[in-house]
Write a structure and sequence with these properties.
With 138 residues, the protein is mostly beta strands. It has one helix spanning 65-77, and strands at residues 16-28, 33-44, 49-55, 61-63, 82-89, 98-106, 109-118, 130-135.
């Protein structure tokens, strides 16, 4: 494991390779809990690939290129600049936490992925949002 990261991608095998794309760490003071998110590309020996997001405290996400392509086209047709994918935790009146995996769209095509996280200060108010964004690995 990398000393500065709580999560690392799996190790390469003869059948699959794994390439880290992004990492984000955040802290929720109310729970006294560290959150870590890791995005990586998984490619099989035949060249097929998918993007995965792992999380230390929540569910993650799997981004299959064909499914993301269809969803991006629909989002673009609806005039949206991004769409959520996989696990999400949306804020409410009682809880400002927000965890979203966002696919950014341009002209109906996926162009970037963003890990967006907003957790809480010790008094329950919203902490400053954190995010990391990387290009869609086409």
């Amino acid at each position: 494991m990398n000393e500065t990261q709580q999560l690392d991608p799996p190790r390469d095998t003869p059948e699959q390779t794994f390439r880290q794309l992004a990492y984000l760490a955040a802290y929720d003071a109310v729970l006294d809990c560290d959150y870590a998110f890791l995005a990586y590309r998984e490619t099989d020996a035949g060249g097929a690939w998918r993007l995965r997001i792992r999380s230390s405290q929540t569910a993650g996400a799997v981004f299959e290129p064909d499914a993301i392509g269809r969803a991006a086209r629909a989002a673009g047709a609806a005039g949206r600049s991004w769409l959520p994918w996989g696990y999400s935790f949306d804020p409410s009146a009682d809880d400002p936490r927000c965890i979203q995996f966002r696919v950014h769209v341009d002209a109906g095509r996926p162009v970037a992925v963003e890990l967006f996280v907003q957790l809480r200060r010790f008094d329950g108010t919203a902490e400053v949002p954190q995010s990391v964004r990387f290009s869609w690995p086409a």
